[in-house]
Amino acid sequence: MDLLSEASSGTRVLTARHISADKQFPDSNIAVNTTFLCHSYSLNPDFGSYFTALNTYAWVLWACGGAILLAICALYVITLRASVKHWRDNISHVAVVLSIYPIVAATSFISIIVPRARLPAEAVAQEAVMIALYHFFCLMIAECGGVEQFIRSAGGADLETRTMPCCCWPCCVIPRPKLQKQSLTWLRYLVLQIPIVQGVIYFIILVLWAEDFMLYQQNFVYFQPFIATSILSGMWGVVMCGRAITTIGYQPRHRFLVIQLALVIVKLQNGLARSLPDIATLPCIMRLHPAVFTNMVQNCIIIVEMLLLSLWAWRLYRRPPGKDLEKVLRDKVVVAVLEDSAPAIDIRVKDGVDNKSYNNNISED
After folding, report:
1. pLDDT tens digits, one per residue of 125-136
2. What distance in Å separates the CA atoms of residue 198 and residue 126, rounded to the nearest whole number?
3. Is the residue at 126 inside a domain?
4. Coiled-coil ranges per the record (predicted)?
């Protein structure tokens, strides 16, 4: 054998004698390899790679999302025009409260188109809901005729502090102050801190995100206790105010529930969608990281949810605000009966005492 001629004849693949070069071996553990490949994609993809991965589905998603967004904006205008008839004096508060649905839907639509805009869009959506909460608090006070009229209608009642989320121990020791101007001012500050504190926190988070995406990923969890404390304390103030105006006949429960659902969607649902790829092993459906794909699906769901909430808000705000007259009359009847029966009870007791002393005098004689 001429070794020089063999070496110069080109590159050759040498195999062992007991292995055939024509034999095909099956790929081992394709699912594991696919999972590794799926997680090797970027958590923060650029628009080009994102559009290439979606292919024709991108146009379908954008067309459907844009159509639903236009429907939500049209519903906002229709609801606002219908509410002017009954909420003319408080139309600015109503406009801000109703604006959360098109704003949240628009931010979700932007996140579907540009995945790198997810965090700024999420911050805008959450801040919109926090501002709407404060305006809903102002709307409840204005619905009662202002602070002074609210206090007169309450008639010196106690402010119920043992409500959600402070309805269990150790919150049971919180005193119940009188419903006065000072207590309403305290409630106003408690609700007003939500948009301020949330805005400051998300500004810091956005700075970390702009500096380094992984720095944001590693430190976001440390902001969660401050975010939760701010939201829960503010919601506590709104619930206390809602409970107080319910006692004088107003019914803001359904309007408050619509805002609560929007808050749950932008906070709790977003948090669950963010943690889902870390909790479960998701399949690789497209050439996208599972977290990016989950965020895309979740934003599509949010747009549909905002459409449903907009329809509910239209049904609520097209009707005039009014009191529950049966509850008001029932409370007045109970108070009147108690006031009428109190002197009779005193006289009866006094008569009983006089008769008893009179009988004792007779027995002594």
Report:
1. 999 999 999 999
2. 8
3. yes
4. none
